[in-house]
Amino acid sequence: MSDAAEPQPTASFRSDREFREVMDRTFTLMSDDPEMGPRLRDADTPQRFEFTDVDMVVNIRSGEPGGPNLAWEWSDEIDWEPKVKMTMSSDTANRYFQGKENVAIAIARRRIKAGGDVKAALAIMPITKPLFAHYRAMIASDYPHLEV
């Protein structure tokens, strides 16, 4: 039996509000990080993430000059076009940010649906690798029920 049939470990957010709070903190961690933030700004890869189980959409892009490295809107009412579109559950996002979900495998197994310039998204993945440790520390400290 292949591991495609094996259930993924899950840890659920207590509410939609908690999910958004954790994701806002996660994007802030990326934006404020002295290594990740400038590299993500320079990569200039606008992305749209849809989280199906919490019925939320966030669009992320490089920040304006002189401002934060990243900007995001919890809406599709934006004045930029995403290069990459990803659809996943909040549980998949939580596993990914803990370093427990490989995006390429998740796409192949349909846990993540990807559209647009997927190569651009995969190209910035190495930039965000340091986030995993920061995210795990935040989860362990403030949201231990989300550890997987």
Furnish the topology, listing elements before pairings.
Layout lengths: L15 H17 L3 H8 L3 E5 L4 E7 L7 E4 L10 E5 L1 H8 L5 H6 L4 E4 L1 H11 L2 H12 L6
Parallel strand pairs: 1-4
Antiparallel strand pairs: 1-2, 2-3, 4-5
Helix pairs in contact: 1-2
Looking at the overall shape, the CATH architecture is 2-Layer Sandwich
- CATH fold annotation: Nonspecific Lipid-transfer Protein, Chain A
Mean pLDDT: 92
Please state how the strands of the largest beta sheet are arranged side by side: 3-2-1-4-5
Distance between the termini: 23 Å
Number of helices: 6
What do these coordinates show?
Helices cover 42% and strands 17% of the residues. The chain is built from 6 helices and 5 strands; from the N terminus they run ααββββααβαα. It is globular and about 35 Å long.
Question: What's the short version?
Answer:
The protein is α+β, with helices and mostly antiparallel strands and 148 residues long. It is 42% helix and 17% strand.
Top keywords for this entry?
6 helices; 5 strands; single chain; 148 residues; globular; alpha+beta; Nonspecific Lipid-transfer Protein, Chain A; five-stranded mixed sheet
